[in-house]
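dumping the sequnces here before i forget
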Amino acid sequence: MDRSALDLTQDAARLTAQLVDFPSPSGSEKELADAVESALRALPHLTVDRHGNNVVARTNLGRAERIILAGHIDTVPIADNVPSRLDDDGILWGCGTTDMKSGVAVQLRIAQTVTEPNRDLTFVFYDNEEVAAHLNGLGHVADAHPDWLEGDFAILLEGTEGLVEGGCQGTLRVILKTKGERAHSARAWMGHNAIHAAAPILAKLAAYAPRRPVVDGLEFHEGLNAVRIEGGVATNVIPDACAVTVNFRYAPDRTMAEAEQFVRDFFADCAIEEFVVDDHTGGARPGLTHPAAAAFLAAVGGEPRPKFGWTDVSRFSALGVPAVNYGPGNPIYAHKVDERVDTAIVLETEKRLAAWLTS
Amino acid sequence: MDRSALDLTQDAARLTAQLVDFPSPSGSEKELADAVESALRALPHLTVDRHGNNVVARTNLGRAERIILAGHIDTVPIADNVPSRLDDDGILWGCGTTDMKSGVAVQLRIAQTVTEPNRDLTFVFYDNEEVAAHLNGLGHVADAHPDWLEGDFAILLEGTEGLVEGGCQGTLRVILKTKGERAHSARAWMGHNAIHAAAPILAKLAAYAPRRPVVDGLEFHEGLNAVRIEGGVATNVIPDACAVTVNFRYAPDRTMAEAEQFVRDFFADCAIEEFVVDDHTGGARPGLTHPAAAAFLAAVGGEPRPKFGWTDVSRFSALGVPAVNYGPGNPIYAHKVDERVDTAIVLETEKRLAAWLTS
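..and the predicted 3d for all of it:
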């Protein structure tokens, strides 16, 4: 790992590599936040604030509009895929290349190079996006300093392969618990098997057909999946408990309450002993009809797409700031051992954003 | 805990309490084996041998028949149920009361009191019965010193509530693994969910109807149960692996090969990626028609029953020694937090065995 000072004079592709080689899995972002803060404080056209490991920098030029460029600095756990490696085709491999240090590199490059933007700029770098919603740094800033997040339009640089993605799906995590009664497995009929009692839950999940609704012109794609299952006491004991953790990713035409009700109804006949809502964050409608969003879209070009993954666009949406995703990463490779980013798209994203903010 | 010397002059009920208060979960039997060995070496009518934490004591009177009295000295893990507690109804509560320190107490009392038995006696005390078959102390003695286990008839003092139980069921443990492909749970359709792939396994288990065959006049009762299930990578990742551990308890009219084939056939259409045989020990037919068994049965009385749980009767059976289960414990309470034994049955078992061996 390389924890030297960030060099914002190198291009966004090289800066991405430096950021990837500076490990920052969720919960361990402090050193990277320090480095980001130091690099930004060296730029005289910005004012810099910090809350925990979240860093916010702003221009104060009195422009008619203020644009927010936001990105998280944490990654999922490293899977033997750091340091980064650039191959002959210009593909940069490593943890966080796509999700989302390439986006953070573009933010830092705009901060470095666009010293007199045509719109005021707010740069937000935050921690703990890859873990439970209540830990999310953007949420903490929104609670403690909502004025830092005021703006007319927000661009979240989560990976979209350089296309504009509108809205985001909501994500609900529930734990479905079944109950049984222990007995020696030699006399199974004296007990009741809680793992067998989970059979209807898995059968319903296996038979689930995802809805693909069109919302504000964009087609979303829902998903309902078991992400964990646990049960068992000992190899000769009929288990008295089993827990299935289910993640529901839902289109932004459902409210949070509607999403939870859907899941409750879906498993209603499964004899669930306990239904625990473990984590829940709502989605955001695309909002591409907002004037600021439309202007951005016209400037950077391309057909907008829906965003399947939950992103913090939803948090800006809740603050009343229209927001889109627009970043160089390719979400297909997020959270994978073979995570990678095309450096040509990293450079192209930097170029288009800079052009829009200086034209 | 009380690790003082064993007092074999107290009655079998009090001795059971002393043994329960001397903790010996599987893997931690050494101190109890030491105490048993010391107590037996103090008895001049016995010769004593030891192999690991297994103790074997014998009379050498040149009698026409040799009877083996066997019991394991280990217990399942203690569940805040030691020391023992005797209630006003004569019920002794605590870990190992039923399985099977009450049986061990009866063995030790026969060793102490029946100094001139009408049949030669072999007492076997062994370790690691409650864990994987390859650790079983009786198996280790059978491998290293088969001559120590020679005899005409064996009585295993596993809990039967003072009735004679013939034969035992076999037990096979397999791990059924399903395979998937990881993906971010926001784009579940890019992966394949290994937990959902386990749905047919649980559905078959939930629908399983046990066979209850009559073997040598006794009705057995089979069982097929998931005893553990594990799957999941992270709460936002489609899991690529899931494992269901299944325990098949089968009647002794099936061979080991037939039992394994039954399980393979049962799950044949479940798209199992890997089928692992984790542990397997065969059953034993009742064998109550053998003359030595019949004589014992006539002496102690009562209707014989089938033994559902796997016991080491099967190991004696494999050595060519007919064997039955006959012990004071109640198998319903084995491995339970509220494990207990009726001390009246402990005393009655001691009395009947002593009468048969001295009449």
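The CA atoms of residues 183 and 189 of chain A lie 8 Å apart.
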